[in-house]
Design a protein that fits this description.
- This protein has a seven-stranded parallel β-sheet, with helices on both faces. Strands 7-9 form a two-stranded parallel ribbon.
- It contains 14 helices and nine strands.
- The chain has helices at about 10-20, 35-40, 55-60, 75-90, 110-125, 145-150, 170-180, 200-210, 220-230, 235-250, 255, 260-265, 275-280, 280-285; strands at about 1-5, 25-30, 45-50, 65-70, 95-100, 130-135, 155, 190, 215-220.
- The chain has a domain at about 1-135 and about 170-190 and about 260-275: Rossmann fold, CATH 3.40.50.720.
Amino acid sequence: MILLTGATGKTGMAAAKAIAAAGKKARVVTRDAAKAAQLTALGHELAVGDLSDAAFLREAMRGIERAFLLLPNTERQGAMEAQFTDIAKAAGVRHLVKISSIEAHAGIGARVPEMHAASEAHIKASGMAWTMVKPNFFMQTLLAASAGVKARGELTMPMGNGRVSMVDCRDAGAVIAKALLEPGHEGQSYKLTGPESLNFAEIATRMSAILGKPVKYVDPPLTAYRENLLKALPDPWRVEAVCEIFATTAKGQREIEALTDTVQRLLGRSPVGLDTFISDYKPAFA
């Protein structure tokens, strides 16, 4: 049986839908059964509890052969992923699929990618078969700026002139499902991007055309953006983690600018493009 974490979020939900579409069922870990109603409607089984609770996790792992690991970015994420890995290994899980980051490597200067790199190393050392799914910046992250686009026609993010080959989380979910359902993905690190590399001024221009109204890119100073983010997200660790990622993106990096053919190769179709994403989420922006 398959165990899913993070399935009430956009990426995990996409994986859960793809698994259900293939006629398979999974056990889904959630802290809130009410938020998981869509998952039970898909035929999945719920395990209600907290992933930080080792006893609960051991019980949830009973009978599991393949597991998917996706945890929110918090200060405890690294320790929780290590615990998850150790319990999965002890429970006899054969294959662990982890959501990571395309820029995950030591020394990058951003805590979340460095945490992912350490977690990848721990999983690889466990002796279990593994697959790392390493998406680039998610298109769905643009939804965090949707209120400004809707109200003022402003796409506000501190990205400078940095270019990024954004990927839709629905493509990531489809790749995750494939890695969980089929043999042959063990020992693979899949870097996922969309079909083009764009800067945020170009993204705003695309929004203007599709939404039928002017949208301009606003590049605020990172300090001002941090202060505003702290008002909406009262977790200094997470705010700093987000700002670190924005800072490294604004500087420009080969890894986040480059394109890969992974989605095309694995799914047999082109990755979702920005125009499709904006059209699909038009009510959030228009």
